[in-house]
Structure prediction request, 111 residues.
Amino acid sequence: MGEVEKKKLDSYDVHFYAPSKNEIEDEVRKEGSFGLDRLEMFEIERDEKDGLSYGAEVAMTVRAIHESMICQHFGERILDKLFDNYGRMVDEEMAKEKIKPITFAIVLRKL
Prediction:
């Protein structure tokens, strides 16, 4: 969209990985300091809250995690537009297909 230089965009390399339920269980067992008392998956509600769409809520969550890195690499001026666009894109994808966002609740016991 012309907001940042292509070279700067190409040099920004941040990975995201979300583990499966089995991977979480395996890592807790391998680490060995905790027992896994409970691990449950929950589907996240996608309803509009406080006038914000689901996409806007996702964008705010992602912004909370990535804002400092993006700011340092690209500068602060792109943040609002970037995350407004991201929220809109999430909403568009959710309208096209049924996506079931999930989260985990984990109860660990110190061994």
